[in-house]
Specification:
The structure is a homodimer of 225-residue chains.
Chain A lengths: L20 E12 L3 E8 L6 E2 L2 E3 L6 H13 L7 E6 L10 E9 L13 E5 L10 H15 L16 H12 L5 H8 L3 E7 L9 E5 L10
Parallel strand pairs in A: 1-6
Antiparallel strand pairs in A: 1-2, 1-4, 2-3, 2-7, 5-6, 8-9
Chain A binds a DNA duplex (27 and 27 nucleotides) through helix 4.
Chain lengths: 225, 225
DNA sequence: GTAATAGTGTCTATCAGACATTATAAC
DNA sequence: GTTATAATGTCTGATAGACACTATTAC
């Protein structure tokens, strides 16, 4: 480190300045059949209450790597693709010292996080996430905004439904994510050109069986998260 | 600092971890009558070439304060309202050591930065900003995307034109910012309800004089940046 | 007068919203 | 058969795009 003898206009090197600790905190979102959009919380290391999974950035590590490490260690979830939301930088936001936190969001299929370490993790509805420390409530809000924007006009871009689904299943998922009813006709007309038929039919339903579709073009995208 | 005896699961305190230096870099955008959308660049402190204005974050300072300080010192521009874009975190991105950079964007009226320290600052078109170090080209790209989204359906939200303008002046500004022609009819119909007439007329033009408008509701918003 | 630009009116194609109709299953 | 849901067709109102027409200035 700092082998390059850089000095600023005051003649000081990088090492002469105090540096903040940098943390990452992540809102991992998924869709619960009953509850709707839920966020993963972990028991805090000091034992008091719950919070979003997070960790301090290690040397030589990217933010995304730190996010993946924290989720692997704290919730047993691996292979994520986190996205930055915002840097929380109030100098007094953490009483342990000067800590910046980079809020992230990630979206995963429900089976990836259900029944993982149930005593130290829980899934809470995004509208009532409970009492959370730091800026975690703010991170959840930004995460939900991000997800709703993604789901405004594309069919399940984060693959929460898997690869094959009926248009009704797709619409119900979008309604639970965006929190408002979607027009049935408009929804089909908008999504149809972005879907391709599988030829298969859903079974065990009440009326005429619905056709199963998959996302057009993005083969296997649904297994990403 | 670190008066709280916090220890993590390995028994280490915050001070035991190496911490990154944190920098801010800012794309200050404005509109040049001839050139179009331009970005402010400053001569680098090591003398080699040009870059976006930036600085290292000081203790007890927010990111926005660091941005304001860097622009005040390096370009004589004050009173800005920067917005975060992205954290650049590649561990080897800066050969001076471990440095994270938070990219920012801000938009100011051209007279705020023109003829400020012309030997150490310059304005370059955003499409051809020259050779830039670090992630500065990426920051400019994100800054332009941000500005184009802001200008997609609202009349000059950052007040680049001042408080009073004709609809033609407004449309030309939007065209230079978004980089594509805007439909004349649609533009008037979209913007008209968001404008209020001043009763005054533009003078010295070729044909029928155009009415001057101001933004509806947001009195004085144009003098912000 | 002519040329140029501002502002208004109108036609049309597109599309969201609404509703009707037909198809096909469970019961 | 009845009931429920899927899929398709059709009508309507709103609006973007296009163009015509009038108004008012410089020259």
């Amino acid at each position: 480190m700092n082998t390059n003898p850089y000095r600023d206009s005051s003649g000081r090197t990088l090492a002469d300045y105090p540096r903040p600790s940098v943390a990452v905190d992540t809102a991992v979102l998924t869709l619960d059949e009953q509850v709707g959009l839920v966020v993963l919380e972990v028991r805090r290391t000091n034992g008091a209450g719950w919070g979003l999974p997070g960790t301090f950035l290690h040397e030589g590590e990217t933010l995304a790597d730190a996010v993946r490490r924290s989720l692997d260690v704290k919730a047993g979830v691996s292979g994520l693709n986190p996205r930055q939301l915002h840097v929380f930088d109030a100098p007094d936001r953490d009483d342990r010292g000067w800590v910046l936190s980079v809020g992230h969001v990630d979206v995963v299929r429900p089976e990836r996080i259900q029944s993982r370490a149930p005593s130290t993790t829980r899934l809470m509805p995004v509208e009532r996430p409970g009492r959370l420390p730091y800026d975690h409530a703010d991170i959840i809000e930004r995460a939900v905004d991000y997800l709703r924007a993604r789901y405004s006009d594309r069919p399940d871009p984060d693959g929460l439904l898997g690869d094959e689904f009926t248009i009704l299943q797709l619409r119900l998922a979008h309604e639970r994510i965006t929190g408002r009813a979607m027009q049935r006709d408009w929804f089909r007309r908008t999504m149809d050109p972005q879907l391709e038929p599988t030829g298969l039919m859903a079974t065990g339903t009440r009326g005429r069986p619905a056709e199963l579709f998959r996302r057009r073009g993005t083969a296997g995208a649904g297994t990403r998260g």
